[in-house]
Design a protein that fits this description.
Blueprint: H1 11-30, H2 35-39, H3 41-44, E1 59-60, H4 72-77, H5 90-94, E2 104-109, E3 115-118, H6 119-123, E4 129-136, E5 141-151, H7 152-159, E6 167-172, E7 192-196, H8 197-200, E8 206-211, E9 214-215, E10 225-227, E11 240-246, H9 253-257, E12 281-284, E13 294-295, H10 303-306
Parallel strand pairs: 1-4, 2-11, 5-12
Antiparallel strand pairs: 2-3, 4-5, 5-8, 6-7, 6-11, 8-9, 8-10, 12-13
Bound molecules: ligand MTE and molybdenum atom (MO).
């Protein structure tokens, strides 16, 4: 288990937290009209920039699983985020100095509303929901994660794609000064992912901005990442800076790296094995070393809701 040493807490972080608390105290004590204006954008932001700050106005969702979530510790110390190293503990160590603010998201391609949005403006029109979802990694481990996010369908409706938009492509930040993993050509940076429009606008698909009711930790993809619960974890692209509405199937990182092993669709499918290992079972992280593996469910258990998206598609060919 990883313990965060006091040395890892940078002075800038302490200062911003103190300022935040002071401002709050000032407002509570003074009850001044217009105090919100004095306090500035930090208090009005839907997703505060202070680490581990509590998110307010989060609504529960009927789409959540009732399985017990993994611990905060599991979810934040067992990660895949190659921009910070390829080991499972690397992101929890090397993403600490990453600054997910200021942040902007550029929207391009076949949509009425394109351009560069500040993160806060991008999020503001939408309500935050808690979505407790199973995450199934292609490496045959799984977790249950209480995300906080916004439905991607709402965002897409707001951006008004044209009829030419058949797919949505996403890109992660490319910044080797902050992302040490990008100093080596482990993957063809920036990390890229894509969905069909039907997948992107499915009610289960969200952009996550939080975890356990708090601001999303860096190692889980701060400030904003994709979550598509019926697909292998690698589709859940982290730290998104670009969204592009396109006409043809966009290139995706793992498909480019190993086309025979990772397809565009990447639907969780216990009947289609990875060329080098079985996908029939999975190990639930945190269940203990001696716990047996559990069966992997078609579409990660979300088949009732998503199977229709693939009617007539051969899922062996379109893996
Ligand atoms: N930018 C980026 N996004 C990424 C990855 C990555 O290496 N870089 N890894 C993917 C993989 S393989 C998985 S399983 C999930 C893990 O998400 P988590 O660490 O929040 O559980 O993130 C996905 N998103
Ligand atoms: Mo993964």
């Amino acid at each position: 288990m990883l313990i965060r040493r006091p040395a890892d807490v940078r002075p800038s972080e302490i200062t911003s937290r103190d300022n935040y608390l002071n401002r709050r105290r000032f407002m509570q004590a003074g009850g001044l009209a217009g105090a919100a204006a004095l306090a500035g954008p930090a208090l009005s932001a839907v997703v505060p920039d202070e680490r581990r700050a509590k998110l307010s106005g989060v609504k529960p969702s009927k789409f959540s699983t009732d399985e017990t979530p993994n611990s905060y510790d599991d979810i934040t110390t067992y990660n895949n985020f190659y921009e910070f190293g390829t080991g499972k503990a690397d992101p929890s160590m090397y993403a600490q100095d990453f600054e997910p603010r200021p942040w902007s998201i550029t929207v391009e391609g076949h949509a009425q509303k394109t351009g560069t949005f500040h993160f806060d403006d991008f999020i503001k029109p939408f309500g935050l929901e808690e979505r407790i979802y199973r995450l199934r990694c292609v490496e045959a481990w799984s977790m249950v994660i209480p995300w906080v996010g916004i439905p991607l369908a709402d965002v897409i409706k707001f951006l008004q794609p044209t009829s030419n938009a058949k797919f949505v492509a996403f890109e992660t930040l490319y910044d080797p000064t902050q992302m040490p993993g990008q100093r080596r050509h482990v993957l063809d940076w920036p990390y890229r992912e894509g969905l069909t429009i039907a997948e992107a606008t499915h009610p289960l698909t969200i952009l996550a901005v939080g975890l356990y009711g708090e601001v999303l930790p860096n190692q889980d993809g701060a400030p904003i990442r994709l979550v598509v619960p019926w697909k292998y974890g690698f589709k859940g692209i982290k730290s998104i800076v670009r969204m592009r509405f396109v006409e043809s199937m966009p290139p995706t990182t793992w498909n480019m790296a190993a086309p025979h092993e990772y397809g565009f669709y990447a639907n969780v499918n216990p009947h289609v094995d990875h060329p080098r290992w079985s996908q029939a079972r999975e190990r639930r992280i945190g269940s203990g070393l001696f716990a047996s593996m559990q069966p992997t469910l078609m579409f990660n258990g979300y088949g009732d809701q998503v199977a229709h998206l693939y009617d007539g598609l051969d899922l062996r060919k379109n893996f």
